[in-house]
Structure prediction request, 86 residues.
Amino acid sequence: MSPLLGLTIDKVGKRAFLICLSSVILICAYGSSSMMSECYQCYNELYPLVLTGVGYSIYAAAIWGSIPYIVDQNSVGTAFGLATAI
Prediction:
């Protein structure tokens, strides 16, 4: 899903909105996961896990693609290194 999201974000733009949307999706996923009752034979946890994957994929595709837009061309490698370290 990440490559398709990356292509969509490159064509549509709206990176800041998508980063905020991914935060909301992750909050909903973690909140719903924490409110679920314990169940050893059911698959209720599958939905929050899928939401977590979607939220993180949106975030990663939007944030990594934003670095070259924000940083000077001479410092892009350093910016990617710092973002990876953080």
